[in-house]
Amino acid sequence: DVGEIYSRLLDHRPVIQGEIRYFVKEFEEKRGLRELRVLDNLKNTIFETNEHILPKCEQAMHDNLNEAFKRLQAANDMIHRLQEREHEERKLQADKLMAREEKRIAHWEEFMKEQQTKQAEVDEEHRKAMERLKEQYSEMEKELAKSVSF
């Protein structure tokens, strides 16, 4: 009797174990259903993404990339034309510069020939003037010699 009283009053293991089993069972059932709902939602989301959203995204990306490629190609062509124009302009400027340089060299050579001609003329005039002065001085010396003899 004492053992039975002891087990009924102080030994609560069988009751606690029953409550624990009940709690675990309820917890697992509710948790299992919740996880099942989460998994179903994930499956639906993945299916929706694969079937509808992904193809739309791929198509939009393909369209936008094609448009961007066309724009880049057009920009590249424009830049190429601008580079060609700039190259032609530089070549034209270089040709003009060479023509001006050749013209300047020809003008300089002509100027130097003129200077040499003028120098030759001035030298000739100077030589003639020197001869006239020598003749004049020699005549003056002769006249001076005649005057001294009187």
TrEMBL record:
Coiled-coil ranges per UniProt: 112-143
Keywords: Coiled coil
Pfam families: Muted (PF14942)
Record InterPro entries: Bloc1s5
CC annotations in GO: BLOC-1 complex; transport vesicle
Family of this protein: Belongs to the BLOC1S5 family.
This protein's name: Biogenesis of lysosome-related organelles complex 1 subunit 5
Species: Leptosomus discolor (Madagascar cuckoo roller)
